[in-house]
Amino acid sequence: MRARADRSFLDTPDFRKAYQLSSDQTAMKFYIEGIKCGRCVQKIEALENKILGIQSLRINMSTHQLEMILDDKQTSFAKAID
Nearest to residue 78, comparing CAs of 12, 23, 22? Predict the structure, then answer.
């Protein structure tokens, strides 16, 4: 069994400042490797309804970028990505 990676860096002020969308600290853009089809996009975007605190997930298939907006009172980026 593999140990889980430490993703706490996603919630540090420096990381958020570098990768947040505009001035909104609850919106961030991530690069997602391996997206090959619309079904991949659907599976990832379906997580919006399964993970408490995620308000929006949108993937641009051509750039492989995921835009995530969350309610940081309910979750964090590190927890949502895990």
Answer: 12
- Over residues 5-37, the pLDDT tens digits come to 888 998 898 988 888 887 767 889 889 898 888
Query: CB 82: neighbour CB atoms within 10 A?
Result: 14
Two tokens, residue 76: 């964090």
pTM above 0.85, yes or no: no
Determine contact, residues 30/63, Cβ cutoff 8 Å: no
Rounded to an integer, what is the distance from CA 3 to the centroid of its chain? 20
* Strand positions, DSSP E, 1-82: 20-21, 24-31, 54-60, 65-70
